[in-house]
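So, does this match?
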Amino acid sequence: MLKTDLWPRLEPLLARVERPARYLNHEWGCTYKKDADFAFCMTYPDTYELGQANQAVRILVNAVNAAPNLMAERAFLPAPDLIDLMRTDGLPLFSIESCAPLREFDAIGITLPHELAATNVLEVIDLAGLPVRADARAEDDPFVLGGGPCAYNPEPYAPFFDAIMIGEGEEALPELLGVIRKLRLQGAARADILRAMADVPGTYVPSLYRWRTEAEAQKTGSWVEPADAADAALPLCIEKRVFEGFATSSAWEPMVVPYTEVVHDRLNVEVLRGCARGCRFCQAGMMYRPVRERSADNIVDAVVRGLNETGYDEVSLTSLSSTDHSQIADILTRVNAACDGRGIRVSVPSQRLDSFGVEMAGLVAGQKKGGLTFAPEAGTQRLRDVINKNVTEDDLFGALEAAFAAGWRRCKLYFMIGLPTETDEDLKGIASLASRAYDRAKACVPPDQRGSVRVSVSCAVFVPKAQTPFQWDGQIAPEEALRRASLIKRSVKYKAIDVRYHDPATSFVEAVMSRGGREVAALVEEAWRRGARFDAWTELFCEEAWQGAAEALGLDLAHIAQAAYPAGYVMPWAHISAGISQKFLALERKRAAEGVTTPDCTFGKCTGCGVCQTTGADNQLAAQRVAGGSNVREEGGV
């Protein structure tokens, strides 16, 4: 099936690049499935160190390899030094397992993890030897499929993909590949396969839709319409897929152990999916609803098995809000007992301020205590109410005191600047809150250890995201972001508090990608042709390429990123549904303007977001609590 092995051509190049172990195959745990007749390559549009740590890549490769007749391999974008050598030598992008050219696969999947990966997507397609635009591909070229967080506004990527999958892929991806396989075996034309793919729920095939003008979109309620007016069966709204079997599926996902160090180099066990806390800026909290959790037995068994099979000395219990798991205290107690005496660190990366108390501090990380990250997001209670953060200063100080009394000495506080309704008083509130947090932390530490206390502040520029209540709000201008960041730094009381902020120029590009329509795809392509790639890497981001591309195309990037709209305005992703009703999002935006909070539905009555009705799945935690199930955490503690 895969006929070409590029290793003899690749190996001589590895002595000339940094970290050649990135490109070695036969890692422990990789799968070679020889009996399949359909080959799929799951690709991450960045280096191995980042992509190998991506849990979605791992999950989807395993899901495809578990299906009959299908096989999956992995590919990652090489670092720039090897890319340049490959282009000079005419060497195409290759898979890790077989070192086979991507163009030999039947289908290629490219995840869309964040907006700054856009130019890398084109680098992947071009380096694979394929036309970057889908409409230029030949009959026997592989189908290029997209998915991931950025798929909830697919239009800036639309011309480059044959199909884009919306939602969770454990069931959807093997189903879609099965359709392609069946029709290819029947000798179907590429156009007919594309049309059949559109009938798979959760699949968006951009070439089948015409892009409307703004006037048409606001009149009709959608920016797209069928390119073939006679195709009445083409779905006009693509609903996300939800993996309803998540709760009962095994928490152990077979994983590859890399030869070289990667980010988050540890065993990751997903304990919970979804979050109903309802932060109004948070796309993940909207798109991964409803909330589903795995059982304590399932999780503990996966941890023990995973540590034994991989040899890792750290395990992370991952989710959007792991301390919201109804059995988290029991899970941590049992995992710590199973790992006792083995030097294994247990971490919960997503710490909630209002659920990190004395008991949680004693259960997390055991004897190996690195740093903790808490996210107040805003410096004043007024602004935290606007964004529906639903935590208070007392929650923060209580969490800090519990952590530092339990042995932690480093903590990072995460904030955003440029949130809707933000004022300079809110910015000064960040400095004040950080200074008081530092005082509280030092007070909990023995006098001889106070010199080791570190509290740092990280400020990200707010980026409006699709499918959130703030999708209609604009981003502040980069120069204003710099002013606000400078105000925070000047207002911090102690020099010991390190204040850092994200580059406003890259955040500006993020906002353009997040809010733009199909016209932004031309911007991405032009910026890429002008040399933009690896835009998430500070040292490689090329602002001139993006600005030059915008000027060449006559695009007003400031308008795309910064314009605010009334809640009734039809945004470019109106034909994509995360299951959340637009009425709910509009109501949440109104509540934000009024400073009114909305409770987490897992602790009370339904808030009417609509996801349980539109997806057909239940909010599992809410159902448990209504039924009064055992081992369920009540609001306010574990």
Observations:
- DSSP finds 23 helices and 19 strands in the chain.
- The two ends are 53 Å apart (CA to CA).
